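note to self — DONT lose this again. spent like an hour looking for the file last time. sequence + predicted structure for the chain T wanted, 228 res
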Amino acid sequence: MTRLTNPQILDAGLNDWRALLHHLSARFLTVDFETGAELVAAIARAADEAGHHPDVTLTYPSVAVLLTTHDEGGVTDKDIEMARVISALADERGVLADPASTQAVELALDTPDQAAIGEFWSVVLTGDPDNYVDDTVVDPLGRCPDLWFQDSEPHETPHQRFHLDITIPPEALEPRTEAALAAGGRVAWETPTFRVLEDAQGNRACLCWSEGRNQDSEPTHAAHALID
């Protein structure tokens, strides 16, 4: 199965869908939850029959669908065919698509040496160093946006004004920290509610957890300011 180019995807005439990053993306306005659940069930049956399964998100007013062929790292004819099936299922139920509301968020990190930090960020974001492939960290469970490493010239570590907070269960803190250290990171410092990790190039992220936090207290914005 060959990965399709953007012009090839456009030529398929999928009016309900948009090609965003490595996916076909659609949002169907189901208006109420019951209609959305019925559409999701129909999509599930069709996906099982075809042996090709999309990512589906059901919310009160809509159903969002992402299609990609993971083995090829992008959109193939299998996705085109499944997109047509899903659009037909929505049409049968009088459900309209809203392609203009679709979007895909990808994080990008400039680095002169992505190999030095790729596994660290794979661990921090997904818990597994093996989710760093080629030049991108991709979470197979879909819990966070992709992180893409953009090649840049070597430079001094800048003053960091943007960082990621990853909130995890307390029991996952130590295993993820140990894996991050094994991937070349270090612990910068920690508070009772979050631990600051730093990659080999000085980029920082927080592993956060709720245990030990006073739920009635103010968020620890002052402590977070120390990261900058």
